Amino acid sequence: MTSSRAALLFALSAAAYGSGLQRFEAVEPHMGTLVRIQVYAAGAAQAQVAFQAGFARIAALDDALSDYKPDSELNRLPNPVSVDLFRVLAAAQALAVETDGAFDVTVGPLTRLWRAGRVPDAATIAEARRHVGYRKLHLDAVARTVTLDDPAMRLDMGAIAKGYAADEALQAIAAAGCPIALVAVSGDLAIGDPPPGKTGWHVDAGGDVRTVSRVAISTSGDTEQHVDSAGVRYSHIVDPATGIGLTRSHLMTVIARRGIDADALATAASVLGPERGRQLVERHGATLVIR
Questions:
Q1: pLDDT of 46
Q2: CA nearest 179: which of 213, 209, 143?
Q3: Most CB contacts within 10 A, which of 47, 111, 156, 208?
Q4: Beta strands per DSSP E along the chain
Q5: Looking at the domain assignment, is residue 72 inside a domain?
Q6: Phi-psi region of 176 (alpha: psi -120 to 50; beta: other; left: phi over 0)
Q7: Is the CB of residue 259 less than 8 Å from the CB of residue 164?
Q8: 275, exposed or middle or buried, with CB in 10 Å at 0-12, 13-18, 19+?
């Protein structure tokens, strides 16, 4: 986004409040989607600093965590890896163990098949599944290293990276002097302090408008990304156990303290289904809304 376009967004969305703060909004493309940030600031100059901090943090994380970028840290896996990459992989592995692989970032060979926009044949899925499995991914917390048992393995952080990026951007924005903020990375929201004179931000949580603050909200489902074939809609979320895109039409929305948790739990709940998904989410002290 050019600076002139950002300035236009500031002017259009600024609104004065009795506290002396104004609301500003800006949008930039990152992580394969549009990232929208809202902040309350004393003026456009402060908002500009906050926006730059938030978008810069997301851009850096995209360089580290993207499986679309050939030269990303995730695709290169230099050892030792960065703190960010190790932190997200460690969280992913913990959830993989807890869900017995229903959540699995080694699912990359399968998700790449489904991105082609058609249903892969059974033999191709079977071959890709040979290179999937969280037990083949090993982390050394002391050396901060990552080891894969199979050189054909591919990692896909799409089910956890956006939530983490929203968390980190919100922290960067608060450090820039704007703790009253909301970061939306597609369906992943990280929400800061309440707006002036209000108890929270009004947001859509799975079709249910809620007033919330200091939480994260993530939604998983087939609304935007899917493959339609022979009257069946296959979600972009692939069940690692079968290698097939989910055909359940539920939208799973998780409200949790952190985006990294909300994002991953929403995907895990989608794979597990409503009953087991709710049990998982509630064990983490989070809320699941099913639509």
A1: 97
A2: 213
A3: 47
A4: 22-30, 33-41, 137-140, 145-148, 181-185, 188-191, 201-205, 208-212, 216-220, 226-229, 232-235, 238-239, 244-245, 252-256, 287-290
A5: no
A6: alpha
A7: yes
A8: exposed
Eight-class DSSP state of 45: H
Give the count of domains, the chain.
2
Is the same domain home to 145 and 170?
no
* Distances 87 to 84, 96, 177, 256, 276 between C-alpha atoms, Å: 5, 14, 26, 18, 26
Same domain assignment for residues 183 and 81: no
Pair (56, 190) in one structural domain: yes
**Residue 17 has what pLDDT?**
61
152/271 same-domain check: yes
Spell out, as residue ranges, where the chain has pLDDT lower than 50: 1-8, 11-12
Angstrom distance (rounded) from CA 147 to CA 136: 8
Query: Are 54 and 84 contained in the same domain?
Result: no
Backbone angles phi, psi at 140, to 5 degrees: -115, 105
Q: Give CA–CA dist 25/47, Å, rounded.
A: 9
* Domain end residue (candidates: 214, 232, 256): 214
- Residues 6 or more apart whose CB falls under 8 angstroms from that of 175 comprise 53
The token duo for 180 is 């009253």
Same domain for 252 and 129:
yes
Name beta bridge partners: 227: 234
Give how far Cα 173 sits from Cα of 12, 181, 283, Å: 20, 7, 30
Q: Is the pTM of this model over 0.85?
A: yes
Structural domain of residue 15, as residue ranges? Answer: 3-66+162-214
